[in-house]
Amino acid sequence: MPEVQGLLGFGRPSRGIAPYAERSDPRGNAVDLWLERRLGWLEARAPLLRRRLLRRADQVMALEPEFRALSDDALRAAAQALRPRLLARRRGDVEALVRAFAAVREASDRVLGKRHYKVQVMGALGLYEGRMVEMATGEGKTLTATPAAVVAALAGDPVHVVTVNDYLAARDAEETRPLYGFFGLTVGVIDSDMDPEQRRDAYRCDITYVSNANLTFDYLRDRIALKARRGQARHRALALTRGGAGQPLMLRGLAFAIVDEADSVFVDEARTPLILSTTADDPEAAQLYADALALARSLTEPADFRIDRMNRQVELTEAGKRRLTERARAARLSGLWAIRLAREELARQALSALHLFESGREYVVREGKVQIVDEFTGRIMPDRSWQGGLHQMIEAREAVEVTGRKETLARITYQRFFRRYMRLSGMTGTGMELAAEFRDTFDLTTVRIPRHRPLKTRQLGATFVRDEPAKWQAVAERVAALHGAGRPVLIGTRSVEASQRCAAVLEARGLPHEVLNATQDRAEAEIVAEAGRRGAITVATNIAGRGTDIIPGADVLALGGLHVILTEFHESARIDRQLFGRTGRQGNPGSTEAIVALSDELFTRFTPWLRRLALRVPVRPVLWALRARAQGRAEAEHALTRREQTALDRQLERALAFSGPTE
Amino acid sequence: MAESFLSTLWYRVAGLKPRLRPHVSVHRHRYRGQPWYVLHDHASGRVHRFTPGAWMLIGQFDGSRSVDEIWRALADVQDNHAPGQDDVIRLLSQLHQNDLIRYQGSPDVADLLERHERNARQIIKQNLTNPMSFRIPLWDPDAFLRRTLPAVRWLTGWAGFCLWLAVVVAGLATAAVHWPALTGNLAERVFAAQNLVISLVTYPLLKAFHELTHGYLTRARGGEVREMGIMFLVFFPVPYVDASAAAAFRSKWHRAAVSAGGIFAETFVAAVAVMVWAAAEPGFVRAIAFNLVLIGGMSTLAINGNPLLKFDGYYVLTDLVEIPNLAQRANKWWGHVVQRYLFNARTLKADPATPGEKAWFAFYAPAAWAYRMVVMVGIALLVAQRFFILGVLLAIWSVFNSVVKPIAKHLRHVVTSPSLRKVRKRAVGLTFGGIAVLALALLLVPLPLRTDTEGVIWLPEDAVVRAGSGGFIADLPVAEGAEVARGAILARLDDPPVETRVVVFAARVDEARRRLQRAEAEDRSEIAAARVQLAEAEAQWQRERERRLRQTLHAGVAGRFRPAIPISDMAGRWVGEGDIVGHVLPPRAEVARLLVPQEDIALVRERTRAVEVRLLGRMDQRHEASLARSVPQATAVLPAAALGEVAGGRFQTDPADPEGATLLSQAFLYDLALPEALADAPFGMRVLVRFDHGFEPAGWQIWRRVRQLFLRQFNA
């Protein structure tokens, strides 16, 4: 268990008002949070926790001969026998815990043919304790999660293994299903296309593999189904008197979650709240947005509006507002156009749609629909849409059918949702620099698990070129050279659009390649499977950055392994490292390099001044400083946004307290 | 953030059916020509002001229609000015925070508890951090006021006002007649033990009368007065009454009348007291009357009635100019001006205000701040004169409250406020750049360092013509104002006994000499005694001859003779030995003798670069001068009465010394050689002297003074 209510609080966790287990929202003050941050930073770097995990892992390893001697049935029986102990004395009974872990380790060897390494056992123990476990990329996080999930499920907790998308949820579940089956535990997988009944069934399993968005949406659906009748007693009374509490609930409680790629979920995606909405019919919508776009096109920058690219906002100037009023009157527009605030908002959105959003970067048009591309994973998020009419505005711009306006039913931030878990744990490859934030926002202590085998990747550093065409040429030359040597190459791009441009350049050179981006994720598994083969060239968006296990062939390893080329630095160095982590997995050889252009958005947006200097004086120190400063500023900016968002969320809740309990 | 029309949070409020709580009454007021809706919460006694725009929503909160319905209906009717969803949510939140609405369903209990806790904490915190407003409610005076009102009702209208006016005018007239007697030596009398003891009794009584007046005026105009209690004003208990119901009155004159009640009451008492004081014999009655004049009159003028402090006068002003919350809004307006125009935060929204209000804001905030500082520091200094530690504590507290705390708050705002996020760089740069420039200016930019002091044109000691011995003035050979050379005879004194004594002693010498001759011839054993006799006689004779010589008065210096009394009155007059007969004024003034206070002596001694002198009466002319005597000498006595406070000089003298010549603290004497241009300066005239010590940054100069202040206070 993590320190209940932080190290500074005492007593049992206070339960939230819900029919099933969950925590109430914490109400820390500024001083507490500040201390928690410092403490989180410190604890992540002090080796105390790691030593304890190491000691216990040694105990688990020591039990190997004893369990190896047991037959399958005896092993199963031994695990079952531990259940009462796990159930009764969860915190104190270290021996039961160690034995249970040893049993899972043995079973894993028999069923999956993979015996957990010591570092994996350490990681699993950390997860079971409710920690943020940092394990190097390629150390087998999928397998690491299994002992913790099994033991928690044996102890009776509904376990949620949270992944960043459906594909990974399904893949991980399939990989580990036999192990759970061995202990008689059921595994459910949630897919976005499932109907409520199927979802309910999946959640009813002992262990559920689910993507973070699906899980959160299902929780919101529960909250809506409950309305104000949330208390356990009230819920049960209703069930008694009416023979059922209305709509049955999806989840069985927020008992234990293992969040894979936790930095992505807790930090990168946590910038926007999740919003559950319905589509309202609005027959005049199409015309409204068309008018707005027409009006917006007649406005000019900077006289009428200004664009704040760093914060991605459009501001109308006073002159712009006047012109808007005149134009709207001249065009004899009525309805919403007559209302000043509505008019200006429409104009702002139209301007954002025209100037801030680009097809292929923020969204793609597929099957006559505008679909959002996740900035961090590069995947398409089919069920998501932008708020407040922006989505419709973009649909109008792309001349596809304008969908109805979304009306919000419920919203919640990841910060708020995940903190409600009675026990939360996370796995990530890159979590150290976020340790403080994990602590103050999610009450998670970060612990770094050592590598199983030393890293054998060679880092070839970064090459800076002037502009984008030069970049693709440089990439193509590099790829051609490596391809000639027979090594497989993975080229990471930041957007769908970039991946297509890269592909075009490779095409022109006659280099055979595969493109893996948001528009064709059906074939994802096959492309990934091929990517490690001799001479393979794969162009991928961030999609390949997380959870993707590219297995290089034996002949390839002899040649030097997979080579990863990063073509644009991300706003966070973490994500760069994630991509580089695709090679050199489990101690394999490999090499990485970055080929970036000085015209990349990261530099123009965050360090315009230093960029100009770098263009004039392209020497090493300047270029290094450029990268460090740009990513540093971007990260600081995002961290600030997240903190402000959390504060704003709390403030909002306080202001909206009159509207009854929150989601 | 730019204001938006649709809100993603709308779903939270759309279905609510709010209604105003039944104990909230609504009044329509006009402020500066604009209609406003005033919601009076009878439960808390608080009053809230809303625009007609907000009222269009609030007015429809009847518990039967949902927020969404109301908003849609409003958006249909109000074209250009329809409120956005965010506006509606903000309004609802505001109403909820002030407990003005209720709605179906259970509220967020956790939030309710948190709010309750926060409020409770807030009150404790407020009481602890601000002893000015430590309030203990004790009593609901409404029934009492209601019962006793008939007896005093006639006083609460025009009749009372006329009576007040008449008495106050009479009081003012009396005060004007006795002004010097009333105000002489004020600080001494205020802090006299007797006066303080009287204050302990009169102050609470007077304040009780003051508060009752508020209460009656409110009650007479139909407002309820539900709370009365004790407030600790700097740990001094005084009664207070909660007359906030008056804010709901429609007429601003009625509102102002209630606010002014305290002023009416206290000035009335003070006016009566001043008349009693003028008529009474010195004694106990007079002391009490004086005390009442002081508390009722002075404190009303300086504090309670002054609109620049947040007491009664302020509320009268805000009522009359129709700007409620003037002080608060003025501060906010300034904050907005700085952020919007200096920091260039273009998205910030200003609170609505008419141009007239803005003019008030622009003036009021700095004026109030400056006045508050002056009053605070003034009180602290006044108290420090008598009770040093208390005064220093008071000064520290007031400086902390009105300088340190606001600055810290503003800096925090600049560094952390989300509203300044986009312009943070500029805001931080300007703020800290400004502070840095100021600090650098204080520490580095040299400013002239000077010491100003005073001296007199010094008449040399030789110039005084003193009678060397007593005598009648027999002869005055020199006319008044005549030029005399050094050594010239100015007067002859005649003292017949001296002549006689000279003759007698001459005879005695003769006799002694003869006796000596005889002794030498006849009796050699007598020689020694005779010699002694002779020497004695010769000495006496010599002394008398010298005295005769001194009867001729000579001029010690060359110059013009000026007798002490008109020459015509002089002849035959007896003057005693040492009496001043007159002066010989040198043709030009050579020296000015100045006094340098102890704290400046180090600077003057070590760092004087140049000396500049100005003559009183010819202040426009500055003259270079040089020090004639640079070895100073400490003195506790004024070299000339003209330098003393009594004579208009700058040096404080001991009040116990009737001649006003003893200094309160030691000072050093310097002589200054006067330049040619001041040769004709009249002797004894005061001169202003400025020692120039070159340049030094202001910071160091201030630091030196503060250090001296503390050293002096703690050494004393």
Note down, in words, how this protein is organized.
- The complex is a heterodimer of chains A (663) and B (716).
- With 663 residues, chain A is α/β, with parallel strands linked by helices.
- Chain A folds into three domains: 30-273 and 413-448, Rossmann fold (3-Layer(aba) Sandwich); 282-403, SecA, preprotein cross-linking domain (Pre-protein croslinking domain of SecA, Alpha-Beta Complex), CATH 3.90.1440; 456-597, 3-Layer(aba) Sandwich (Rossmann fold).
- Helices cover 49% and strands 15% of the residues of chain A.
- In chain A, strand 3 (187-189), helix 9 (196-204) and strand 4 (207-211) form a beta-alpha-beta unit.
- In chain A, helix 5 (94-111) packs across helix 7 and helix 19 (468-485) crosses helix 20 (496-508).
- The longest helix of chain A has 36 residues, at 620-655.
- Chain B has five domains: 10-105, no CATH class; 133-322, no CATH class; 326-444, no CATH class; 462-584, OB fold (Dihydrolipoamide Acetyltransferase, E2P), CATH 2.40.50.100; 587-715, no CATH class.
- In chain B, 50% of the residues lie in helices and 20% in strands.
- A six-stranded antiparallel β-barrel of chain B has the order 9-18-21-20-19-22. Chain B has a four-stranded antiparallel sheet with strand order 10-17-15-12, with no helix packed on it. In chain B, strands 14-13-11-16 form a four-stranded antiparallel sheet.
- The interface between A and B is large, with 42 and 45 residues.
- Chain A: It catalyses: ATP + H2O + cellular proteinSide 1 = ADP + phosphate + cellular proteinSide 2.
- Chain A: Residues 35-627 form the SecA family profile domain.
- Chain A: Residues 122-298 form the Helicase ATP-binding domain.
- Chain A: InterPro entries: Helicase_ATP-bd, Helicase_C-like, P-loop_NTPase, SecA, SecA_DEAD, SecA_motor_DEAD, SecA_preprotein_X-link_dom, SecA_SF2_C.
